[in-house]
Amino acid sequence: MIARLFCYLIAVAMISVAPAASAEDGYDLWLRYAPANDARAGEITRHATAIATTGHNATLTAATQELQRGLLGMTHTTPALTRAVAQGALWLATPATDATLPVALDGLGDEGYAIRSTQADGKAVTLIAANSDVGLLHGAFHWLRLAQSGAPLDRLDIRSAPKIKLRLLNHWDNLDGMVERGYAGQSIWDWWRLPDYKGPRYTDYARANASIGINGTVLNNVNAKATSLTAPYIAKAAALADVFRPYGIKVYLSVKWTAPMELDGLKTADPLDPQVAAWWKAKADEIYRAIPDFGGFLVKANSEGQPGPQDYDRTHADGANMLAAAVKPHGGIVMWRAFVYAHDNPDDRAKQAYDDFKSLDGTFADNVIVQVKNGAIDFQPREPFHPLFGAMPKTPLMMEFQITKEYLGQSTHLTYLGPLFEETLDADTYARGKGSTVAEVIDGTLDGHKLTGIAGVANIGVDRDWSGSIFNQADWYAFGRLAWNPDLSAEGIAREWAAMTFTPDPKLVKPVVAMMMGSREAAVDYMTPLGLAHVMGTGHHYGPAPWISDLARPEWNPVYYHKADATGIGFDRTKSGSNAIAQYAPPVAKMLADPKTTPEKELLWFHHLPWDYRLKSGETLWDGLVHHYDRGVAYVADMQKTWENLRPLVDPERFAQTEAFLKIQHREAKWWRDASIAYFQSIAKRPLPTGSDAPAHDLDWYKAQDFPYAPGNP
Ligand code: BDP
Fold this sequence. Notes:
Elements: H1 2-22, H2 38-46, E1 50-52, H3 58-75, E2 80-82, E3 90-93, E4 113-120, E5 123-129, H4 133-148, E6 157-160, E7 166-170, H5 200-211, E8 216-218, H6 231-244, E9 250-255, H7 259-264, H8 274-290, E10 296-299, H9 316-327, E11 333-337, H10 349-357, E12 368-373, E13 397-402, H11 418-426, H12 438-442, E14 453-457, H13 473-484, H14 490-501, H15 506-527, H16 558-562, E15 568-569, H17 586-593, H18 603-606, E16 609-610, H19 621-645, H20 652-684, H21 699-704
Parallel strand pairs: 1-2, 1-3, 3-5, 7-8, 7-14, 8-9, 9-10, 10-11, 11-12, 12-13, 13-14
Antiparallel strand pairs: 4-5, 4-6, 15-16
Helix pairs in contact: 3-4, 8-9, 11-14, 13-14, 14-15, 15-19, 19-20
Beta-D-glucopyranuronic acid binds next to loops.
C-alpha cells in the first residue's frame, strides 16, 4: 500500500513537473542546446569526445562548462575534461598553457580566437586557440553556434576577432526597477538585494552576452540618479562586475552631471572648477578600488533637461575632458552622448547635435569617445544616418542603436532590427570619398582610431523571455553579432538565430528568416512611410498621433516633423528649408538636394512635396503614401499566415506567444494605417486610390484613444 502510494506520488510529481521542465518559455534564448537528431548527435559527439585543457581559472571554467552544457543538451552525453588531448577532442589552448600551437594567433588580439580541425600528438582534434581565456570563451561559443545550427564541424579553419573594441549594452534601468523604454518587465538588476544576493540570472545574462561578444554593460539609465555613485551602490555595481568578469564583460555607469552638488554639497558642477575636478577624481578612485576593471562613464548632459557643462558656459569637451582625466589613471574611458537639442534653439532639431559637436572635433581627450545615435532625431523606424558620422575625423565616434523598440512596436510587433542596423552601418558618408561607410567610421578604419565602440540600448527585463517577446531576442542577438563584425549580413544573422532559437530545419529557417527580413520595412510602411518620422503618440510613443500640435516645445509635436498642409507634406531640409543637408559630405548633400535623386524611402525626411508629386512608380505622392500603409498591413497578414504554417515545427508555448503577438500587430498595423490616413486625408483632401479601404473610424475616434499606463514611459 505504502509502496503504491509512493509510486502514485512520484507519478503525480512527474506530471506536475514535466510540463514546466519541458516548457519553452524563451528563457534559454539562443543557447537552448536542444537535442539533435541521432545522426547529428553522433557527428557532434565525434568532434567532442573530450574537452582538453590545462589551464585553470574562472573564464576557462565558464568555457568548459558551457561546452559541457551544450553537448549534454544536444547529444545527451557530457564529455570528460582531460588534460591530455584525445582523439576527437575539443582542445582549448592559449600560448600560456601550450607553448607551441599549430595555429598562428597574431591579429586575434585579446578577444579573438582561431578554431581549426588539426592534429595533436597524432590525434585528430578541434583546436580552439586564443591569446587569452576570454578569446577561448568566445571561440567555445562560436563552436557551439556551429554545432547548434547544423553547420559542418570538420575541416574547420576559422579566425575571428572583433572589429570594434567597445561592444556595449546600455541599460536604461532606474534604481527603483523601472526600465525607461523597457517592454520586458522590470529591471533585472535587483539593486535592493545586491550586493549580498547575486541571483543566477546575472550569470545567464553574462553567458548570453559573451556568446555574441558583448564586452561591456552600462548598468543604469542615462537619465541618471546621483545615488548610483554612493558607496552602497558602488558596492552593488561591484558585485555585478564580479559575476560578469569571467565572461569578459566590464561594467560602466551613467553619471549625473550635478552629482558633486547633490551628494557632497559642492556649490557648482562647473567642469573647470578645481574642486569639481577633484571630486570626480576622488569618486573615480573610490570606484576603481571596488571595481579594478571598471570601464568608465556614460554621460547624457545638456540634453532633455539633464544638467551639463553648458550650464556653466563650458563646452561638451570641457565636461568630457574633466571626467576623462578622473578615470584616465585607471585606464577608464568616457562616453559622451551627442544626443542634444535645446529648448531655446529654434533651428531644425535634426541639425543641433552636429552644430554643437562638429566644431569640437580635435578638442576631446584621447580617452573620450562621442556616442552618436544612428540618426539625427531619435531611433525612428527609419532615419538617414547621422550627419556627425564622418564629420569629426579627429574624434572617435561610437554608434548608439536602440535595441528596445521604443518606436517600432515595443514588445508585441515583430520587427527584426537587423536590417535597420545593417542599413545604417552600410550607409556611405562619402566623408573621405566614395566608400566611406558608417561602419568604417565606427570601427576606426576610416580615420585611424584605436578607441572604437558601439552601444545598443538594451531590450532586457525580468520577463522569462528577457526581451518581451521571442522575436525581440533576435534584435539583441543581431546587435551583438554586428558589434563584433559590422560587415555581417542581417540575413545571415537571422539564419543563425532562427536555427538556434527554433530548429536548423530549413523548413522553418527559410520562412522565418524571410518573414523577419521584411518585417522592419513593413513597420516603416504602416507607421512612417516615405521618410516620415516621429508621428507617434506623446510620451509612450506607441500608437499613431500625427495630429498632435499643442505640446510645449515645437519639436515634441508630430506636426513639426511631417509639416502636412494643404500644399503637401514633408520637412524641407534643403536650402529653401532648414538646409540640414549641408551637414552631409558634398556628394551626399547634392543627392539629397533634389527630390528626384533622394532615395524615396527618405523622401519626406528631406523634402516638402505637393500631394500630387509623382513618385518613381508614376503614382501621386498621396496615392503612394496610402499604398505604403496598405502594404505594411498586408505584410503583417502574410506573417500571420507564414507563422500558422509553422505550427508543427514550433513548441506550443513559443508558437502561441508569437501567434498572439502577430494578431496584436495586425490589429495595430491597421490602426496605424487607418489613423494616419484619416488624419492626412483631412489635410490632403483627396480620395483614396481605388482598392484602398476607408479607415474603420473617423479621425475623432483615433484622436480619442488614450494609453495612460503604457509601459516604459518615464
Ligand atoms: C528617447 C527616449 C527617452 C530617452 C532619450 C535619450 O524617449 O526616454 O531618455 O531618448 O536617448 O528616445 O536620452
